Amino acid sequence: MLRQIKPKNARSKRALAKKEPLAHENTKTVLLFRGTTCSSLIQDVLSDINALKRPYSIRFTKKNDLRPFEDASSLEFFSQKNDASLLLFGSHSKKRPHCMTWVRCFGGQVLDMLEVYVVKDTVRTLAQFKCEKCKVGLKPLLSFSGTQFESPVSNQYTLAKSMFTDFFRGGESSTVDVEGLQLMINFAAGEDAQDGSPAKIHMRCWRIITKRSGQRVPRIEVEEIGPRIDFAIGRMKEAETGMWKEAMKKPRGVEARPKKNVDTDVVGDKIGTIHLGKQDLSELQTRKMKGLKRSRDGGTEEVADDTSIISERDADSTRDVEIKRQKIV
Question: 251 CB contacts (<8 Å, ≥6 apart)?
């Protein structure tokens, strides 16, 4: 852990102010580095991932004597020193061949870690795909295929989905240009093997090509551009409950204040709720009838005696209507 340094001049004060927590955080930076023993395969994979993450990545080439699962102090030092919340460490040993450790940090401390092993026989680097590559700094489309990623119980695959999303999602933007959607990264996981070994995660990168179709909507084609990597699941370190809750907390003022009686559905449409007061049915306008008219004394007027009413039949025989009128005295 780095000790708290009190700024002595304006320059150091500005440098420390850049590292303070922000309501709207900047795009996360990935730090890629190697251990004391690292195979050429892992170095090539680190170079390809660095190419996908540019310009939000930092690559170290010197050897570092680290054991992430045994002592995380060196990882925390690198995270604070380089202002990088995402770390990718590559190493190689007889016990753990072609090993890559994905690390997330929060507040300068290690949040969680995932260890994967690269399958040597299936790796193809960017240089082995002789095709046009995507431009630097594109925001990729991420897709996850397989029921392993949708497990209701937290495991290595759900952690891998969360980890890969944080590593490759890029910066946040309010608007998206369709022409900029050129890179798609797919992660697929099948079922466990018959011998009981866990399913591998297959990483594939595709370039999205739009071509003329003679219609308003263009024809979409995809072309694999690399890298092609298969990962075997290794060890994992889940985040502590208190630290995870603190990391997921949203600062005040970031979210818009909710409006009363206005909700938003899944699609994003606004739905309003209208509240009506209690209706007074006594003032309801109905058909006026003389027999129901209220008198001045509060009672209901009664109809006159039958002796004072003259009944007549309509002269028209087709209409059997009885007309009653009051007898004039």
Answer: 21, 23
